[in-house]
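Notes from the 1:1 (GR / supervisor)

We went over the backlog. Supervisor wanted to see one worked example end to end before approving the batch request, so GR pasted a single chain during the call. The sequence is below; no edits were made to it. Supervisor asked that the structure be written out right there so they could see what the output format looks like.
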Amino acid sequence: MFQRQGAAAYKADLSGTWRVLDVFGRPDLRFDHVIHVAGTNGKGSVCTAIANALQAEGKRVGLFTSPHLEDFRERMRINGAMPDEQWVVEFIQRSRSNFESAGLTPSFFEWTFGMALVWFAEQGVNVVVLETGMGGRLDSTNIFPQPLLTVITNIGLDHQQFLGDDIRSIAREKAGIIKDGVPVVIGRMRPEAQSVLLETANRFGAEVYYAGVAARAGEDGPHWPQNRATAHKALQVLNAMPFGSGWEVPRLESITKRGHAGRWQWLKPAPSGARILLDCAHNLDGLIQTLNAIEKLAFDRLRLVFGAVNDKDVRGALSVMPSAGTFYFCQAQIPRAMPSKVLLTHAADTGLSGRDFPTVERALAAALEDSEPLDLIVVLGSVFIAGEVLALERDSG
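Structure output shown during the call:
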């Protein structure tokens, strides 16, 4: 599965998704109200914010996001609640034989997306908010011909081996969710990405709405102001539709991404009193914005727990890291993880100093032990690192 194996599990077409939905009895036909969100950074926060606002207005909202941090079921929620674990087990057992009979070997993402739609249909949701997994044009989520609204957040360099080597190529893939006559909300992004989206929207007769200018970043992190502005514009557009009659658009400052963990998340302080910040930014654009915001925080010494996966631009990420930081390199317990010793070697090439640890737990423990009261411990690198740290915090009480 792509979650653990990466490129080996990628499928560059939608034929598998359609066959999975056929086996499941076409649950996609049960939904009249779909909001589809793509982008490189911020799409998960925007999806969560939209879903939270719609839930507050009395809607029964099915939210599909990826990846998960700790629990597979995080990917599908109805008004914040995940499906029962036993339901998932029984669904997989029941579906596996159906796939075998049909001669299908679905990917992890095809399985998950189909499962989410079946659960949403069984539970009678009013509206579905979908986050694309990767790209847009060929993403499994891109099977609804007439969603209520499409939203495209910031576009940067990520998954270049699948989406293209430059911003325009990646933007063309993201623009694949734009549909004939369906309005599209565009977040702030590079001009070259925006021009591609505008060209596509014009070709499909899709009315374009621009997200507002972001306010200054606060405790919720550097990414949230712009993502909140994008979600707010999406809610304004929805409110102008028959779908949105009878409810008011929430004030910008009241919009929340509650439930979207691992993004600029403050954990409980270390025993020494040092603050601990967790952020799963992993592509270059996201990392640079996160690191710029960290530089503005007050601390005596910066300690960074960092891990990465093999299919990311690790050298590029290390090149923007603060040279004054003390690093604790680690690897998540997945096949895709880059060995911590390899990370240490790459780091040395870019002038960074630190130690390597075979696990996330040992790296974090070393950072905690070394820390002083006014230090800042930052955990960065991948969603897998973030997931393991969140699990460690939960287990520690």
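Supervisor's comment: The two ends are 31 Å apart (CA to CA).
Batch request approved.
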